[in-house]
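SEQUENCE WITH STRUCTURE:
===
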Amino acid sequence: MRQTLMAAFAMTLMAGAACSYSADRPASVPAKQRTALAAAIAAPTRTPANVARDRYRHPLETLSFFGVRPTDTVVEIWPGGGWYTEIIAPYVLGGGGTYYAAGMSPAQLAAVGRMRESNPALYGAIRTATFPSFEAGDVRVPDASADVVLTFRNVHNWRMGYQRPGNSDYSAEAFAQMYRMLKPGGTLGIVDHRLPEAASDERERSSGYIKVSTVRRLAEAAGFELVATSEVNANPLDTADWPDGVWTLPPALRLGERDRARYLAIGESDRMTLRFRKPRR
């Protein structure tokens, strides 16, 4: 039964790969490719704990909004535990595209390495790169090679100076490097925890939330144009003022049993979903 499901999954991916990349990317994936994407999301190879979080992360709607096609060269910035990797890598690699997992250090890519080892048929073709790169010898995503760059809940980390000496903000450099790796006309897709615009800017340095205006400022300073926004990952129950920042909410639940039922009822954070484009100039 499992082999039959995987064979059907592969055939769906191949069928979805017929449409080629256009420099002026459409607002969503075509119907055939959306079917291939749905098959990747429904694949039996996904981790059950990851599947349980689909109701918060809306992978079909999110990746369709970003226009990710199976023939694309896709870069996922900081894939973490591989939640989106389980979907994007088979979808792209099975359709003739290229998938890069880009992390700051080997430790950040450890989960992806385990995926490649455990299932080389599905994940063995994943490429890795360093991001952001601060050393001359780092392996980088080649300039102007990517159709789509995606980053999920990471811009706040760059703003907070995660893993940098003195917690220095390197968000501007991160956006500059993403701009360089994209082809002209390529897409930058961002999902992140949304801080209300009326909140103090200082909260971006400690809460795990970040303002839409800050993300726009960083992207536009690097040369990107905002194409569209989506509320697919919005959560109106999240007031973004929790005692331990965004990590108060699931999945982290840093307060342990304290008010656990309340935070589970709220669910995961309110998130912005923004689509930018590298201009054709």
Observations:
- Confidence is low (pLDDT under 50) at residues 1-23.
